[in-house]
Amino acid sequence: MEYFWTYETDLPAGVGFSHFQGAHLCWLLVLAAMAVTGGILFAKQQYNTQLHIQAVLSITMLLVELVQDCYLKVSGHLDINQLPLHLCGLALFITAARNFSLAALCRKKGDCRQGMGIRRMAVYLGDVQYALCLPGALAALLFPDWTAYPPLSFMSIVGFVNHGLLVTSGLYLCLEKPFSVHIRHIWRPVTFLCLLVPIMYAFDRAYGVNYMFLLWGPVNSPLALLEQKWQEEYLLGYGILVMLVMVVWYLLGMLVGWLGKKVYFPKWMQYNN
């Protein structure tokens, strides 16, 4: 715990952890166990209760992000490189917008079928969460870019906890009673990216930052290998990779839904498609 509060630039070499080694695997196992245990309970709840659980998850994620920002401000490291503009940072607000709007609608109206404008926005954001935020957060957990920190340092804990909560919220989305997965919905995350990526790319170029990893891939990640292979065409390869992931993710969700109807699963595991 010697370096618990130490920022990355002040850490000595060799105090961090490696991908898929002991500390990393322990974090993944703990997060997976918590998500599965909670999922068993989540699947048994009424839809209104599920939405309020999702809202609590979003509140928790935003509070963790706020605590991190306070730490960065006090330590003098809060600058343009620490804005929540990576996909996972934006996912905190995308997920919160969806969860809060639906939870508030159900609480106010007492009938989740009312407020169709809000519901349409929430359905749109739900597919963005499923097809972009969930696989993005999962990739961040599998290939974290905070490996320079000790596994039990403040920044490591924040990284694992918030990405773990994002994955958990995305998985619980699939357990919500009305939620369905179909590849015909892929236009929603695609249009979201078409609006977001040009803005983020211009911002990255203007300020010399690398939000959403649009300019180069993080070290020791699949995007770093993609950058080596595609070089000047990195962004094109990145776009193709994202499209492939979304297609596979939707098809996987449809397959799980089909199996849930054709093959016996315990009731809590049944996929609501």
Description:
With 273 residues, the protein is mainly alpha-helical. It contains 8 helices and no strands. Helix 2 (47-75) packs antiparallel against helix 5 (154-173) and helix 3 crosses helix 5. The radius of gyration is 19 Å and the shape is globular. The N and C termini lie far apart (46 Å).
Summarize the structure.
The protein has helices spanning 22-43, 47-75, 87-109, 116-142, 154-173, 187-207, 222-230, 234-262.
Q: Which structural class is indicated by helix and strand composition?
A: mainly alpha
Question: How far is it from the N-terminal to the C-terminal residue, by CA?
Answer: 46 Å
- Number of separate helices: 8
Average pLDDT, all residues: 89
Shape: globular
Poorly predicted tracts of residues:
268-273
Largest sheet: none
Number of strands: 0
Q: What is the helical fraction, as a range of percent?
A: 55-70%
Proportion of residues in β-strands: under 5%
H and E string? HHHHHHHH
Radius of gyration from the alpha-carbon trace, in angstroms? 19 Å
Strand and helix map with partners:
Blueprint: H1 22-43, H2 47-75, H3 87-109, H4 116-142, H5 154-173, H6 187-207, H7 222-230, H8 234-262
Helix pairs in contact: 1-5, 2-3, 2-5, 3-4, 3-5, 4-5, 7-8
Short descriptors:
globular; 8 helices; 273 residues; mainly alpha
